[in-house]
Every structure is written in C-alpha cells, then in structure tokens.
Write a structure and sequence with these properties.
This protein is an alpha+beta fold and 94 residues long. The protein has five helices and three strands, in the order αααβββαα.
C-alpha cells in the first residue's frame, strides 16, 4: 500500500466552498468590509470582478491573513499579545 492511498491529497480538503469562505473571512479581517468571491468552474474563481486561478486565490488568502496579523502587531505594540505574535513570527522563521 502506498502513502498516497493512506492520506488524501490536500486538494481534497480544500473544496471550492472552503476557499471562498476563507477568502471572504480573510478579506473582511484585513479590510473591514466584505470581499466578493464566487467559484466559477474547475480551478477558476471570480474575485472582486476579476477571474482568478485557484493557486492565486490561496496565496491571496495567506497574504491577507499576514496583513491582518501585521496590523494587529503594529496597532498594539506594547501589549502581551504583541509579544506572543512576535514570538510566533520568530518561530516560523526557524
């Protein structure tokens, strides 16, 4: 039995609806307003009126999440939360 038979591919867990929901949530967190995202067909999505590939959309979700984290850290520079976020960012670099 091969490894691929035991574990599903990541693409199986990232359904189109999961990606759309992730984008809307990340966009709202970063911009405090709703972003428009709909699944068209296959690997294609309509994002704020522009047709985008699935790969681009996944990268955009990650970028929006990082942008939100950066805003939180910058807005709350001396709090305990900031120290935790800085520690997380340092650990991610290891």
């Amino acid at each position: 039995m091969t490894m691929s038979a035991l574990y599903p591919h990541k693409a199986d867990t990232l359904t189109a609806q999961n990606i759309v929901d992730s984008y809307r949530s990340a966009y709202y967190s970063a911009n405090h307003r709703a972003g428009d995202c709909r699944h068209l067909h296959g690997r294609w999505f309509l994002v704020n009126g522009v047709e985008r590939d699935r790969g681009w959309l996944l990268l955009e979700v990650e970028r929006l999440r990082q942008e939100t984290l950066t805003k939180v850290v910058d807005d709350d520079a001396n709090s305990a939360k900031n120290r935790v976020f800085r520690l997380i960012r340092r650990l991610k670099r290891l």
